[in-house]
Design a protein that fits this description.
Length: 392
């Protein structure tokens, strides 16, 4: 009799195929290299004819293997890879598919670090980098062909939603794989692979790790595509420490629980802020006022724990708002159990030119909120402090 399909929370706790015996918690394997009985076995492992995770840790490690199986299962993918950071994962995807003279088509609404990677490293390397403004523009650009199509959804920081089905169709026209940074959604809120992407990228520093105490990145997709990226990872060495991989795997056990609470808290805070005096606009894809709300309803399983809002009065007022908060911490990054606030103009998009930021809708008074798992009443009270500080 076949095993019944288990829910995401169960798979998060137990993994795709829980062992029948042994320790409940995985063991950490800190070895950098592994012993072989014969030269023939050593040569076979080096040639890829045997397990990579018991040869040399730059090639693989049992802790990588355990984490990658869990991530692939949660993403609904055939395989996945773990990296030292989210940017290492993005760089590996880019360098796998792009060469001098090839073409990258990407949406312009991306994390600032990704834009900098594409412009400052890939373009001087000889890659034609084409940024597009909307779905129709993406489709037009893809008619000219591409080696890689790259999107982010939901986007940082305004939670804009890219229609993955339209992006997939555009990538097919270009004859290129579609890579999607799905960090804001996590595998809980969005089935990125089933939705149309060939590759789903996560900054594991964020929701997968979830406790602001580690860094990492993952890429999930078909076995064939992941094998290509693995060869790049092996050569460039963007691997995590085995203990780092173990900590991400441990954190996945509570991922659905954390994300469920973050989803409900974020929507409650977005509703609290919307329409308040001193707040010009709230960006949360769970609000009907969000321009991409209907796409989010169709494409996502939950609206996420991220929101941004524009404080009337620009940067000085946003500064007063943030500095009045007592429970919510001023800090970069996102996805942890604690609620964090940050101004994108000084963090995630500080490297973006002013005119581009304004075209993207990022105002001087925009604050990004990464909502945690605290009691929502305490978070509402803290936002009320921020509002009071702006009213002075």
């Amino acid at each position: 009799m076949s095993e019944p399909e288990r829910g995401r929370s169960t798979r998060g706790v137990h993994g795709p195929r829980p062992p029948q015996e042994g320790p409940i918690a995985s063991s950490i394997v800190p070895a950098s290299t592994f012993r072989f009985r014969t030269i023939a076995e050593l040569a076979a492992a080096n040639a890829g004819e045997a397990r990579h995770d018991s040869f040399y840790t730059r090639y693989g490690n049992p802790n990588f293997t355990a984490l990658e199986a869990r991530v692939a299962d949660l993403e609904g993918a055939e395989a996945s890879l773990v990296f030292s950071t989210g940017m290492a994962a993005i760089a590996a995807v880019a360098t796998t598919f792009l060469r001098p003279g090839t073409r990258l088509v990407a949406t312009s609404d991306l994390y600032g670090g990704t834009i900098a990677l594409f412009r400052e490293l890939l373009a001087p390397w000889g890659v034609e980098v084409v940024f597009t403004s909307d779905a129709a523009d993406l489709e037009r650009a893809c008619r000219g062909g591409a080696a890689l199509v790259y999107v982010e959804t939901p986007t940082n920081p305004l939670c804009r939603i890219v229609d993955l089905r339209r992006a997939r169709d555009a990538a097919r026209i270009a004859g290129a794989p579609l890579a999607c940074d799905a960090t804001f959604a996590s595998p809980v809120n969005q089935a990125t692979i089933a939705g149309g992407a060939d590759l789903s990228i996560q900054s594991a520093t964020k929701y997968l790790g979830g406790h602001a105490d580690l860094m990492g990145g993952t890429v999930a997709g078909s076995a064939a595509l992941i094998a290509k990226i693995e060869r790049v990872r092996r050569k460039t060495g963007g691997i995590p420490d085995p203990e780092q991989a173990w900590r991400i795997e441990r954190s996945l056990k509570t991922l659905p629980l954390r994300v469920e609470r973050q989803n409900s808290n974020a929507l409650a805070l977005a509703r609290f802020l919307e329409g308040r005096r001193g707040i010009e606009r709230v960006w949360h894809c769970g609000l009907p006022s969000h321009p991409d709300h209907e796409i989010a309803r169709r494409q996502m399983r939950g609206f996420g724990g991220m929101l941004s809002f524009d404080v009337a009065g620009g940067e000085p007022a946003a500064r007063r708002f943030a500095e009045a908060l007592q429970t919510i911490a001023i800090a970069p990054s996102l996805g942890g159990v604690e609620t964090l606030v940050s101004p994108p103009i000084h963090t995630s998009h500080a490297s973006m030119p002013l005119d581009e930021r304004r075209r993207a809708g990022i105002a001087d008074g925009t604050l990004r909120l990464s909502v945690g798992v605290e009691d929502v009443e305490d978070l509402v009270a803290d936002l009320a402090r921020g509002l009071a500080a702006c009213a002075v």
